[in-house]
Amino acid sequence: MSQFTDLDKLAVSTIRLLAVDQVAAANSGHPGAPLGLAPAAHVIWKQMKLNPGDPGWINRDRFVLSNGHACALLYAMLHLSGFDFKIEDLQQFRQLGSKCPGHPEFELPGVEVTTGPLGQGVSNAVGLAIAQANFAATYNKPGFTLSDSYTFTFLGDGCLQEGVSSETSSLAGHLQLGNLIALYDDNQITIDGATNVSFTEDVAKRYEAYGWEVLHVANGNEDLDGLAQAIAQAKRSKDKPTLIKITTTIGFGSLQAGSHSVHGAPLKLDDVKQLKTNMGFDPERSFVVPQEVYDLYNTQIIQPGVQQYEAWTKLVQEYSAKYPELGAEVQRRLAGDLPRDWEAALPVYKPEDDAVATRKLSEIVLQNIQATLPEMIGGSADLTPSNLTRWKEAVDFQPPASGLGDYVGRYIRYGVREHGMGAIMNGISAFGANYKAYGGTFLNFVSYAAGAVRLSALSGHPVIWVATHDSIGLGEDGPTHQPIETLAHFRALPNMQVWRPADGNEVSAAYKVALTHKHTPAIIALSRQNLPQLQGSSIEKAMRGGYVLQDADNADITLVSTGSEVSLAVEAAKVLAEKKINVRIVSLPDFHTFDQQSEEYQLSVFPDNVPIMSIEVLATSGWAKYAHESFGIDHFGASGKAPEIYKKFEFTPEGVATRAEKTVAFYKNKQVTSPLHKPF
Amino acid sequence: MSQFTDLDKLAVSTIRLLAVDQVAAANSGHPGAPLGLAPAAHVIWKQMKLNPGDPGWINRDRFVLSNGHACALLYAMLHLSGFDFKIEDLQQFRQLGSKCPGHPEFELPGVEVTTGPLGQGVSNAVGLAIAQANFAATYNKPGFTLSDSYTFTFLGDGCLQEGVSSETSSLAGHLQLGNLIALYDDNQITIDGATNVSFTEDVAKRYEAYGWEVLHVANGNEDLDGLAQAIAQAKRSKDKPTLIKITTTIGFGSLQAGSHSVHGAPLKLDDVKQLKTNMGFDPERSFVVPQEVYDLYNTQIIQPGVQQYEAWTKLVQEYSAKYPELGAEVQRRLAGDLPRDWEAALPVYKPEDDAVATRKLSEIVLQNIQATLPEMIGGSADLTPSNLTRWKEAVDFQPPASGLGDYVGRYIRYGVREHGMGAIMNGISAFGANYKAYGGTFLNFVSYAAGAVRLSALSGHPVIWVATHDSIGLGEDGPTHQPIETLAHFRALPNMQVWRPADGNEVSAAYKVALTHKHTPAIIALSRQNLPQLQGSSIEKAMRGGYVLQDADNADITLVSTGSEVSLAVEAAKVLAEKKINVRIVSLPDFHTFDQQSEEYQLSVFPDNVPIMSIEVLATSGWAKYAHESFGIDHFGASGKAPEIYKKFEFTPEGVATRAEKTVAFYKNKQVTSPLHKPF
């Protein structure tokens, strides 16, 4: 006998029409997928653990709408299940300032991650599942299951075509993430028409190859029992993620059903009306929710969820009594606080200390702080021995059955999957519990992950890229590996820290600021080659993003630089001193942090009346914000020994000094104003 | 009986040692993969159609080393097969200025594409195979097989883990590219150690799911016959690409064989010696090629290749006699020339013509020129009706058996695979025959393809991105779809045109310049919303990258802008005129092209003594090269109706005018110098 009644069917119709009405009111949006997916959404919700009174409850089940364009469906579900989405909000779908924007945004209650760019959501879901597995392995105790939540995700053909989902799905299979359940909307339609124009692969077989459990619901439009059985079976699959292929009709019930014209354009008025009539609704009314549907959601979904929440709250109290240390740690993490004095472990350097590559200095930081910060969960896209991202005692995050590690492990072997790593880090961060995710690759290959990095910044996920081999200084690997445009790119991204520390103190400062931030991601660009410890650097100064490393009376020029070129500026200043040119030196490890300092402080770093020249072995673009002139590399690099490449491109003390001299001469007898002054 | 003799084994040993010696001489590089793959390389070469005297021969077989770090192997093969790689060149492996850089570069003779960033090469190979299929379908005639070449590629675990290869492999299977043969170096090792730490999927099954033929050679270290049989079978697979999994031992023969330590570091001296001794070579000598190996390559590879080349040359002559028009077209394309007067088809607009979205104007260009330019081969990453990239009469590039098109078709349904599209376009371009590949997506999602775009620029593949929905002007889809940092990113990339045309004439100019360039890719950023045809624009002016749209006597300010904001500048100028502020207006559709104009011309556009303010609804970064002040958007966008978003962010005539007034006031009584003046 079916576990579903006519009331469930009414609820499904209500969901369908709420989505259609939103798109119609906006005269913009995507009605097709919600019409096909409403039954699956309803069935998932009926067994979801959630509490609208605490959307951040750490043991809630998560739902990620990877095909974010179908968000009218999500807003309908959040409305019905008691989250802070009123009918009036739904009526403002896609309007400026509305709570229902054109794609779901992370900061909204009940929205787990920002989706829209295809392939990201399902990849975030892998990150959520990793975090859940780690959190459970770390804190669950016999009789105290603090964490046993699932991550559900909807994804469409587009998500499956994107490479990022291939990367993360392969890894999810490897990691045996049984807590991950993906529902694939097999509606055979994309914007270009039928999927057979470009997408004829056997998706089920591919996911089996990844090590997933694959199920199929043939009539996703109507078969609520089939959907429920598939979900139950997926939950029983403890050591494999599950892909449930649900065959649906895009725009089900619409006159345009099964056509790509229903994907991304509102239904015509008469179509909306016939849909309502056929579903037994008044064709003249919109945004209608029958009271019995509200009652169903209240009694069958919200109330049970709240009960589970209350039981869980009680459990955590008992847990804290029995395991006071762990309990305190859980409470701290849930509050989003770092441990007191964690930063005491950050190393401090003196000028007489050895010259060390900043990637190595980064390794020392990670080594020093990992024990204090159980929320730190790191990895590398298969460059561990180059990125130096793994601390000595690290346990790999691996399925216990593999014999290679455990879910309690905090080091992730991402494989050669930069974009996937970025999207997974976003998911880990979105899980909560203060997770601090970091991932290593070469700076140049952070660009592979640009789609995910952008979403870190937009969503405010404070993930950290450990981006080593940050310039031509990597040497022999040549121009395919040497970043040029990369810093300009990410510095132009809003809400993004882009650190390029010059020495050990600056590396410590970069981590200190990046780990403290709650809503800003960071890229930390690190050298392959050794760099000296600088006279004049300190963690405190560097934490301001930029500071005067070396001041001068009657300065003729300010040289501003980052990373490996700061010590070059110091050397150039010596050459210039011989020519009676007085040089101030500014180190500017992070533009974003510097921009948040007071105007007064900023002007003390870049005062009037002294011309400013920047030095960085990457593209000059973006530097004019601080410097009158820029010495950089606006062409591609070269393969060879690093010192020879530096010499070829004239990044030597003499090469810098020559340009500084020209800059001084150029501005002689001119009125020199700091670039920081702006008319608006 | 084996078709291989002891001489072949000697050749394989020679190849192995040439690779090892290069890495040893450089004391840098990757000896592991060459040691494992040398047999496969030798077997492929023995049946490859090539002519070292004409590396660009259009009907040569192509070989792409997707695992580009193994390039010591490639240089060895090119040396043996008579390309312009001398032993002295190999001895300079990874040295500055050498012909043997750390990763293979496109401009080198016999190197088909630049590889190194993983996943790109195999994806380029898909593009090469597409181009070959199209070229053959277009020009082959009964008795005149002008094109029947194969594309071979080596790829490793890393290439398979990258999402871009998943995208392109799925498409290659869909397209039934029987001319593509990929050899997967299954050596079970990546930099992080054994592949089982992150990569336990069933690769063979995955590729079967994509629709590929999958073969296996169990002993890739030694089984030359097995390799040859697999390749022969792959060639017989006419309607499927083939993946040959060759199980090898990384660093085969070395004391470190099978370990990740042999992946990316030179062998120790005693290891090199034992390797040479075991192979019957003098342990004290390096870079040794026995004469009989040269002879083998000469008689069995080079001479047969040259004979095929000569036969082909004769065939083309006969073809040209029998099909004079097609013959002339082939000759023109092989010469890399565009048809005479092709640009006559570019539309010209007058100010009184209708306001039209530049994406629509782009569609008109494509429609007008497609018949004249058979080398144009375009597509979209599943946004055809939004990008407007398909001309009316277009035939889809599809396998004939699909019933959806034909290989003679020039419109590619890429699916939702932006990165794959970018890499495939590079491959199509690298094929030769003057192919002009373009691909459509939203501007914001060009970032997904950053890895491939970078290689377009580095290699000089003149591909074109038709990048519509280029700003907040796209409206309701919101911040996940609205580019902010995107133009700053790609403008900072060397050798990259980034067009943002303001009207019909500028769209025509963008295509004219982009299609004429032989070594520079282009992004053409296009609006979703309608834009007026501008007074003062022309194709000729816009072809300079920047020009004075509207001059003024005694100008108080120069407003410089691109795309949708140029007409806004015109409106703002009217507001300012009422306040007696005289405004010059500059349109700057492409920085890269403008930078190539004479200094005199550039200074005529941005003269001294007039403050310059830029206006663009994207990040301001990069604008300081031309403007003293910038009005832009250095935060994320918003979901809503486009005009409301413009208003919210004050991109209105009044909002621009206010900032222009402040700029004028700020620079009053100051000496104003054009930002184009530079001390060095």
UniProtKB/TrEMBL annotation, chains A, B:
UniProtKB keywords: Calcium, Magnesium, Metal-binding, Thiamine pyrophosphate, Transferase
Residues that hold thiamine diphosphate according to the record: H69, G116, P117, L118, G158, N187, H263, F445
Subunit details: Homodimer.
GO-annotated cellular components: cytosol; nucleus
Binding site residues for Mg(2+): D157, N187, I189
Organism: Lachancea nothofagi CBS 11611
Family per record: Belongs to the transketolase family.
UniProt name for this protein: Transketolase
PANTHER family noted in UniProt: TRANSKETOLASE (PTHR43522), TRANSKETOLASE 1-RELATED (PTHR43522:SF2)
Obligatory cofactor(s): thiamine diphosphate; Mg(2+); Ca(2+); Mn(2+)
Molecular-function GO terms, alphabetical: metal ion binding; transketolase activity
